[in-house]
Amino acid sequence: MSDRTGIFAGDDPFEIARQWLGEAEASEPNDPNAMALATVDEQGLPNVRMVLLKTIAEDSIVFYTNYESAKGREIDGQGKAAMVLHWKSLRRQVRMRGLVTREEGPEADAYFASRSLQSRLGAWASEQSRPLASRQSLMAKVAKITATKGVSPDRPPYWGGYRIIPLEIEFWADGAFRLHDRFVWRREKIGDAWNILRLNP
Q1: Which has the closest alpha carbon to 73: 96, 31, 93, 102?
Q2: Residue 35: domain span
Q3: What is the set of active-site residues?
Q4: What functional role does this protein have (predicted)?
Q5: For residue 10, is it within any domain?
Q6: Is 180 annotated as contributing to ligand binding?
Q7: CA 141 distance to own-chain centroid
Q8: Under 8 Å CB-to-CB from 119, ≥6 apart: which residues?
């Protein structure tokens, strides 16, 4: 009989993740949706950085970035990524890894339009991850973009979302004496039934 009860109970890992995120939103002091995103370059050298999770959908998670950034180039090159949400206030984390597709349709347009004007103008001005001569040159470019794009800039063609469709999801909760609780949901390919295992801490 499974001992997957309490905070681990449920038949839908995305719903469990949404519940945990909801709890973190009430207890975490800053950015409960901040996640570490891991990618690899064409030589297989890994990169990791913090990004903001925007949506836990029915079968995936979505975040937004510049497609021409280092992370964007690595995701487009490999089609795979991994992430972790870690909440110190809850002493819990969620890890996912899987396949990645772009989210660049109406949903991306709607999210871009919902951002502050300064963030939208910044997305047009920043050549993310590429060398920058000075902050002054960046601010000058922002001023130029502001003059040309006005108060309602559309979404840049090189900016949008990425959707991670996981093949593996792990839920981790802190336990006494470092005897943590860990449950991993795995599947061979998208659409397969999940196989759920308890892991040693």
Answers
A1: 102
A2: 6-115+157-199
A3: 178
A4: Catalyzes the oxidation of either pyridoxine 5'-phosphate (PNP) or pyridoxamine 5'-phosphate (PMP) into pyridoxal 5'-phosphate (PLP).
A5: yes
A6: yes
A7: 28
A8: none
Considering the domain boundaries, does residue 132 fall inside one?
no
Question: Which residue is it, tokens 């999940």?
Answer: 194
Side chain identity, residue 88: K
Residue from 35, 2, 66, 23 nearest 164 by CA: 35
- Give tens-digit pLDDT for 105-131: 999 999 999 999 999 999 999 999 999
52 among annotated binding-site residues: yes
What average pLDDT does the segment 77-97 reach?
97
Does 144 fall in a domain? no
Number of domains in the chain: 1
Find all residues with CB under 8 Å of 181, minimum gap 6, and list them: 8, 172, 173, 175, 198, 201
pLDDT at 150: 84
Report if residue 86 sits inside a domain.
yes
The pair of structure tokens assigned to 128 is: 């993310």
Who contacts 126 (Cβ-Cβ below 8 Å, separation ≥6)? 66, 138
Beta partners for residue 82, in sequence order:
38, 97
Q: How far is CA 146 from CA 38, 125, 127, 137, 197, in A?
A: 33, 9, 16, 14, 52
* Residue 128 among known ligand-binding residues: yes
Residue 95 has φ and ψ, to the nearest 5°, of -115, 140
Q: Which amino acid is at 76?
A: D
* Interval 145-197: pLDDT, tens: 999 988 889 999 999 999 999 999 999 999 888 889 999 999 999 999 999 99
**Domain containing 28 — which CATH number?**
2.30.110.10
Query: How large is the average pLDDT for residues 45-73?
Result: 97
